[in-house]
Design brief:
Number of helices: 21
Radius of gyration: 29 Å
Shape: globular
Oligomer: single chain
Largest sheet: none
Length: about 475
Amino acid sequence: MSNRRHVTPSVASNSNSSHVANRSVPLFKRLLFPTAPASFDLPPLLLNPLVSPEFNAELYDFIALALRAFVQPWWTKITRYDKEFLPIITNILTHVFRTLEDRLVKAHQRGDLAELVFQDIPVIITQHYRDFRLARSKLNSSYAAGGALSIPALFHASQSHMAVKPGGEIDLDYVRFLVDHILKTCLPREDWDPETERVIVREIIVKIVAQDILGKITQPWFIEKMILDQLMNIPSTKPKVTTPHSNVFSTHTLLVFVLTLIQSISGVCLALVHAYRQLIVTMKEVNQHSVAIDPLLVTQTQTDHSALPLEPSISFSSVDPSSSGVPSSSSSEANYETITDFPHDYATYIVVMLAEIFTTNSRCAGNTIMSTIGMATSQGVAGKWLDKFLPYLLTRTLSTSLMQTMTRTAKRTLFPNGYPAPPPIDPTLEEQAETRRKLVEFLDDNDTISMALQPLETRECNVHLFMLLLDRILGVLMPELFDGT
C-alpha cells in the first residue's frame, strides 16, 4: 500500500506535465505536424525570402483553424485515430500557394499586374457605369419594347457574357471550366489524376465561388456596406474649438502672437523640407524600381503598343512569355526601352473612371477640373513619372506586412474564438435603406453620391461586373486561358 501511495502521485504528475506541454505547442503544429518535434522550424509556405517567420506562422495558424472547423469534424466520424489526412492537405495547400505565388510574381514582372489595377479594372468599371446609364435612358422607350424590358435585360443586351444569363444567373459550367484549369495548374499531378478527388474538390469550390461569394458580393446592400465601412475608417478632421480672445491690446498679447507666428512659420518650413527630402527619396526609389524589371520577361513590342486604343476600352488580350521564345539581349534591351518610354497613361484611366462615376461631365466646373487633371497627368514629364510611380506604389502596397495584417484580420473575423463565427444575418429592407442613407449623407453632395450608387444597386448588373473582373484577374494570373495555348 505504501508503494502505491508513492507511485500514484508520480504518474499523475507526469500525465499533467505532458498535458501542459501539449497545450503549450501551437495548434498548427499539433494538427498539421503531429509527428514533428515541438522545436522544429516550420517549412515556408511561400518561397519569397522576404516573408517573415511570423507571417508564415500566421498562414499556418489560419490553415489549421480552417481544417479543424471544416474538415476534422466529418473526418473524425470516418476514422478517429488517423492523423495523416490533415498533413496531406497541408502539403497540397503548400503546392497551391507556391504555384499562385510564382504566377503572381511573373505577372508583376511582366507589368500585367499594374495594367490590371490601373488600366483594366478602371476601364471595366467605367464601361459598367456607361452601359447601366445607357440602359436606364432606354427604359420606357421603343428600345425597351415599349417598356416591356427591364434595366437588367437592356444591360445584358449591351454587355452580354457567356457565363451570365439574362436574369443574372451564373452558368455553373463556365465556373467549372475555370476551376478545372486552376486545379490542373495548382494541384500536384498525383492529386489531379484521380477523377473522384478532382470532381469533389471542384464542386466544393464551384459552390463556394458561384453561390456563397458571388451570391453575396453582388448584392447592392453588401457593396454599399463595404463602401460605408471603408469611409467610416477614415479619421475625421473636426475643427478645433477656440476660445474667443479679448480685443484689449497688451504687450503680452503681442508677444504671444509673434511667438505663435514664428512657431507656425518654422513648422511649415520643417514640413516643406521633410516633404522635399521625401520626394527626392521617392523619385530615386521609383527610378530604381522601373529599371529593376527584367527585360527578358517583357515580350510586347512596339507594334503591340501602337495597336492599343488611344481611349480607354475593355481589352481581354494577354501575352504569354513562353509563346514568343527568349529574345536576344540586344533586342530585349531595345524592346525594354521602347516599353518603358511608351506612355501607359495609367492616371488617365483612373481620372476617366472617377469622372464617369461622379458625372462631372454634366457640370461645367467639374468638367473643367477633371479635364485639367487629365491633361496634367497624361502629358509630358508628369505622365511618364506617374507611369513609373503607380506601379511602384502598387509594389509598396502589396507588401508582406500588409498580407500579414490581412491574414490576421481574416483569422480574427472568421474564427473569433478559434472556431467559425455564426453566419451573419442579411439585413432587412429598413436596415439596407438606413445604410444607403448614411452613405449618401456622408458627403455633402447628396445628389452626386446618389447617382454614383445607382449603377451598383441592381444585382443582375453587378453579376456582369464581377464576372468581367474575375475573367480579367484570371487572365493575368493564367494567360493561357485566353490566348489559346
